[in-house]
Amino acid sequence: MDHLPRWADVVLVPLISLLLAAIIAALVLLSIGQSPVEAINVMVEGALGSAYGWGFTLYYTTSFIFTGLAVTVAFHAGLFNIGGEGQAQLGGLGVALACLFIPWPHWSLALIGATFAAAAFGAAWAAIPAYLQAKRGSHIVITTIMFNYIAAAFLVFMLVDVLRPESQMDPATANFPAVTQIPTLNQIPGFSLIFQKDVPANVTLFIALVMAVVVWALLWRTRLGYQIRAFGKSESAARYAGINPTKIIMIAMLISGGLAGLMSINNVMGEAGRLLGNSASGAGFIGIAVALMGRNHPIGVVLAALLFGFLFQGGAELGLWTKIPIEMRTVVQGLVILFTGALDIMVRMLLTWIFGLFRSHKLGAA
Amino acid sequence: MTATTANLGTGGRQATAAPFAIELKGISKAFGAVQANKDINIAMPRGTIHGIIGENGAGKSTLMSILYGFYKADAGQILINGTVTPIPDSQSAIRAGIGMVFQHFKLVQNFTVLENVVLGAEDGPLLNRSLTTARKLLTELAREYELDVDPDALIEDLSVGHQQRVEILKALYRQADILILDEPTGVLTPDEADHLFRILKGLKDQGKTVILITHKLHEIMDATDNVSVMRRGTMVGTVKTSETSPEALAELMVGRKVLLEVEKRPAKPGALILSVENLSVKDEHRVERLKGVSFEIRAGEILGIAGVAGNGQSELLAALGGIAKATGKMVMNGIELPLRGAGANGQARRAAGIAHVPEDRQHLGLIMDFSAWENVAFGYHNAPEYQKNGLFMDNDALRADARAKIERFDVRPADCWLPAKSFSGGNQQKIVVAREIEQDPELLLIGQPTRGVDIGAIEFIHKQIIALRDQGRAILLVSVELDEIMSLSDRIAVMFDGKIMGFRDPAKTNERELGLMMAGMAATESQKGAA
């Protein structure tokens, strides 16, 4: 088979897929009597047109980087972790417990403590499906999906019956102490020149970017990453090499769950300041699309997270400023996932054919 | 053998008068910078068996893929029965009367033979009519060509040899006049291979043209009328089989003289390295596959394990290599190694000085998606020389090491960044052998060292094994190629049904005796002979 040049595979295929998704989305808008031009204007203006808009886009991006990296690490071990949603919610519980019950002297210490709590709770939630996969052969896709529901139910129980202050009506924890409030971008010296209004994006963004580098180094520069990737590509060969399957499954899933859990520093600690039900609000699932579109590489994950951050924020703006229903946001996300994930093989085949024509033309001319 | 070839030669001459079944004129095909086929010309007379040989990567498969419509040639013409026939896809190839039997069968495992034969060539929306015609045809073919297969058997219940017959039946059902077989005997036992060649001769006698792609010289000599030799994308010559010799063909293939026999000095067995007692292995269905095997290997000695594939050899290697759980006793250099539990794994075995070239390089020995340099560390990724700063792997050291090994073992192309799957089978094997031999192990386990490997590389790998032996290392060689066992081993153990049937001195035995032992027969008789 003829192959695509690498640049075309990495850059051209996702771009064309995105373009196709945009065209279909435009057709959907036209069919409900709305103007696609107006919609894209509102989305770009609202998500990227101002520092304020960027403040929201980057906030969503931060969450998606964590959940995208979580899926990526598991994927390289040949494991499809669909449980990012539940792991992120448990991470939120960890953050809440750390913020509510430990008297932190300063936000920076609270941040470190909450980071460990979030990662530990997320990892613990992933550990059970991982153990069942490694020892009992229960398929990780099934168990992680089920654990999302268990997590949701468990959180409702914790919020309603355990953590809710007595006088409060809604199922949520009390507000975290003010000292645990981590700086948002507009509160950071230097960045405050750009972000003049209050934005939800916060220092967690930098943790996310650091984690992207850490994940890259882990997978492609360390012995553990080597073993994870070897196991993910061929379990039988890994056994031959004396790589312990149980160990790799456990470690990869603990890292994956920990990364998913980390997202809750962004939304629970950085934004809400208390733990609410359904705190991950779908970011765990978006992480699957982000990893898929980012080709399971940290750089791709960061870029894809930015795209989905834009779609999330832009979509919200649509609901705010136009007659386009907010559900359109879900439609656009669905189309992007469909084209960049499921249908990109179609685009790739088309491109391979076009490149093939181009090549034989060149040969004929020579 | 000479009588057979003479017969075939006559057949070939008679057929030359008829128009050519296939003519390829000036076929060229490039993949990027690699010229896979360069100006290929062949003419194959109707009613002959035409062999195509060449090393792995010589361009045989590309040429056949062009003929079967998988690739489009950059230049050149294909003539079928004297008329120019463009073949843009495999449907056109089938219409032109070309049938292909692939190395890896393309059968639906849980369909019956009949359903597989008809699949894709049904002559209507209702299956019944096609199935009835197919059943009739199958019965006729079975009678005519010894192509008997139960039409109602499920593919998954058939032996490999029978599955291959289904592939041939599929092609004949589609009215193929020209049959291409790609490395057909790689998966067959000697008996099944003989049967296949009888079938091919029957087809030839009916006026069909057979193209046989192989790199086994004795098959070419036994079965073909004419033979074309390819080397690095070019056709270096087409000769009548009756007018050539294996040595001449090997030289044409490789471009230099090749030693078909291994040169080695007598072994000087030294200290006891490995002793195995009563080793047994059960598979996942708790069926005993290895049944209480005992043997010893000394330094500077090659113990060859002969046997038909599937008689416990794979389990023996897996148990010794730390991949499968086993019972019994394994003592290496006086130290007993655990056969199950935490200490029984590939890392522990490597630490004990055991290197392992597995039988299945694609599923065990290599990570096919990893680059060559990543594969060079595979299994030895914990070695201190591959680490730096206590935290990271020293990828520069890995690449330097890979480049050195690639050069010493003449791996082609010499590009350590290429993924393992992009190398030919022979070069993949060289990567594995280089990795394992260069560890300078006390004991080398080596399974099917030359399976799917071309002649030039076979010679090279055999020399490496002998060299390691001469350095005083112990070697356990498992191979289904009896020639290989007989020429390399210092002692031969024959396995049948999970047991060792007996040990033989290669100088004092012959293929017939070993063949009987491999079939589980004459064990008692041959033991008497040994006593």
Share in β-strands of chain B = 15-25%
User: What is the overall number of helices of chain A?
Assistant: 15
- Unreliable stretches of chain B: 1-17, 523-531
Measured as a percent range, the helix fraction of chain B is: 25-40%
| Average predicted local confidence, pLDDT of chain A | 92
> What spatial form of chain B do the alpha-carbon principal axes imply?
globular
Secondary structure topology:
The complex is a heterodimer of chains A (366) and B (531).
Chain A: H1 6-31, H2 36-48, H3 51-76, H4 84-101, H5 107-136, H6 140-163, H7 191-194, H8 204-221, H9 223-233, H10 235-240, H11 245-272, H12 283-293, H13 298-321, H14 327-342, H15 344-365
Chain B: H1 2-16, E1 20-31, E2 34-45, E3 49-54, H2 60-67, E4 75-80, E5 83-84, H3 90-95, E6 98-101, H4 113-118, H5 127-145, H6 160-173, E7 178-182, H7 190-205, E8 209-213, H8 217-223, E9 226-231, E10 234-240, H9 246-254, E11 272-282, E12 288-298, E13 301-306, H10 313-320, E14 327-332, E15 335-337, H11 346-351, E16 354-357, H12 361-365, H13 372-376, E17 387-388, E18 392-393, H14 395-408, H15 425-437, E19 443-447, H16 455-470, E20 474-478, H17 482-488, E21 491-496, E22 499-504, H18 511-518, H19 523-530
Parallel strand pairs in B: 3-8, 3-9, 6-7, 7-8, 13-20, 13-21, 16-19, 19-20
Antiparallel strand pairs in B: 1-2, 1-4, 4-5, 9-10, 11-12, 11-14, 14-15, 17-18, 21-22
